[in-house]
Amino acid sequence: MQIIKNEIMSKATAAKQASVKLANLPTGVKNEALLKMADALEARSKEILFANGLDVDAAKARGTRASYIDRLTLNEKRITDMAEGLRQTAELPDPVGNTDFSVVRPNGLKIRRVKVPFGVIGIIYEARPNVTVDAAALCLKSGNACVLRGGSEAIRSNKKIVEVLQAAATDAGIPDHAIEFIDIIDRDAVIVMCKMRGLIDVIIPRGGAGLISRVVENASVPVIETGTGVCHIFVDKSADFDMAINIAVNAKTSRPSVCNAMETLLIHRDIAVDFLPLVKKALEDKGVELRGCDRCLKICPDMIPATEEDWSTEYGDLILSVKIVDNVDAAIEHINHYNTQHSDSIITKDAHNATQFQWEVDSAAVFVNASTRFTDGFEFGFGAEIGISTQKLHARGPMGLEALTTTKYLINGNGQIR
Amino acid sequence: MQIIKNEIMSKATAAKQASVKLANLPTGVKNEALLKMADALEARSKEILFANGLDVDAAKARGTRASYIDRLTLNEKRITDMAEGLRQTAELPDPVGNTDFSVVRPNGLKIRRVKVPFGVIGIIYEARPNVTVDAAALCLKSGNACVLRGGSEAIRSNKKIVEVLQAAATDAGIPDHAIEFIDIIDRDAVIVMCKMRGLIDVIIPRGGAGLISRVVENASVPVIETGTGVCHIFVDKSADFDMAINIAVNAKTSRPSVCNAMETLLIHRDIAVDFLPLVKKALEDKGVELRGCDRCLKICPDMIPATEEDWSTEYGDLILSVKIVDNVDAAIEHINHYNTQHSDSIITKDAHNATQFQWEVDSAAVFVNASTRFTDGFEFGFGAEIGISTQKLHARGPMGLEALTTTKYLINGNGQIR
Question: Which residues of B touch A111 (CB under 8 A)?
Answer without folding.
Answer: 380-381
